[in-house]
């Protein structure tokens, strides 16, 4: 049985053009030494979610190659509020739609929710809770192009058509 590994993946670059690296939790795929399945959605690396299959290392700017989407949406919540209070309010609501909390750190909560739940339902749940936490914001981590932050990646359409 494979053990969890921490893969250093480039999340972006700082003002000095130095790489910003995030340690991403993953499990090696048996028989494929360069393939890994993510255990959790990352905090800062855009384009990935828990369950995604990646090739690591890869010779590109991120250091990895996405091989297969798991179908999970990565949801990133950032807050200036007491994160424990926000966690207590939001996590049970995410769990009711079969989501999981992947990360709880000062100022950030990361969730994974399968795309089959529907964007509308996910957004309703998050928006309803965040109304009580006005200094909090949330973003999808793997829905929009990391370069412009606006163009939908539409990977979920390929997933739906293969079912």
Task: Supply database-style keywords.
163 residues; alpha+beta; Alpha-Beta Plaits; 5-stranded antiparallel β-sheet; 4-stranded antiparallel β-sheet; 3 helices; 9 strands; 20% helix; globular
Average predicted local confidence, pLDDT? 94
CATH architect. name of the largest domain: 2-Layer Sandwich
User: What is the structural class?
Assistant: alpha+beta
Shape: globular
Rg, nearest Å: 16 Å
Fraction in beta strands: 35-45%
CATH topology label of the largest domain: Alpha-Beta Plaits
Q: How many helices? A: 3
For the termini, the CA-CA separation is 29 Å
Q: State the CATH class of the largest domain.
A: Alpha Beta
Q: What strand line-up does the widest sheet have? A: 1-2-3-4-5
Helix percentage: 10-25%
Our count of domains comes out at 2
* Number of beta strands: 9
Report on the biggest sheet: 5 strands, antiparallel
pLDDT < 50 runs, ≥5 residues? none
H and E string: EEEEEEHEEHEH
Question: How does the SSE layout of this entry go?
Answer:
Blueprint: E1 4-13, E2 19-29, E3 32-38, E4 53-55, E5 65-68, E6 72-79, H1 83-96, E7 100-105, E8 108-114, H2 119-130, E9 136-140, H3 155-161
Antiparallel strand pairs: 1-2, 2-3, 3-4, 4-5, 6-8, 6-9, 7-8
Short description:
Helix content is 20%, strand content 37%.
Walk me through this protein's architecture.
By secondary structure, the protein is α+β, with helices and mostly antiparallel strands. The protein has two domains: 4-68, no CATH class; 72-140, Alpha-Beta Plaits, CATH 3.30.70. A hairpin with a 2-residue loop joins strand 7 and strand 8 (108-114). Helices cover 20% and strands 37% of the residues. It is built from three helices and nine strands; from the N terminus they run ββββββαββαβα. The chain has helices at residues 83-96, 119-130, 155-161; strands spanning 4-13, 19-29, 32-38, 53-55, 65-68, 72-79, 100-105, 108-114, 136-140. The strands form two sheets. A five-stranded antiparallel beta sheet has the order 1-2-3-4-5, with no helix packed on it. A four-stranded antiparallel beta sheet has the order 7-8-6-9, covered by helices on one side. It starts with a strand and ends with a helix.
């Amino acid at each position: 049985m494979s053990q969890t590994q921490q893969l250093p993946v480039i999340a972006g670059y700082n003002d000095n053009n130095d790489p910003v690296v995030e340690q991403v939790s993953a499990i090696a795929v048996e028989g494929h030494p360069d393939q890994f399945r993510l255990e959790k959605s990352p905090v800062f690396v855009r384009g990935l979610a828990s369950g995604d299959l990646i090739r690591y290392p890869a010779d590109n700017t991120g250091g990895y190659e996405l091989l297969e989407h798991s179908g999970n949406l990565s949801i990133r919540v950032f807050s200036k509020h007491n994160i424990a209070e926000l966690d207590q309010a939001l996590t049970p609501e995410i769990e009711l739609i079969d989501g999981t909390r992947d990360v709880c750190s000062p100022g950030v909560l990361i969730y994974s929710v399968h795309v089959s739940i529907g964007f509308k339902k996910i957004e309703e749940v998050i928006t309803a809770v965040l109304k009580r936490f006005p200094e909090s914001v949330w973003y999808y981590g793997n829905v929009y192009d990391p370069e412009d932050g606006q163009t939908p990646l539409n990977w979920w359409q390929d997933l739906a058509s293969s079912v």
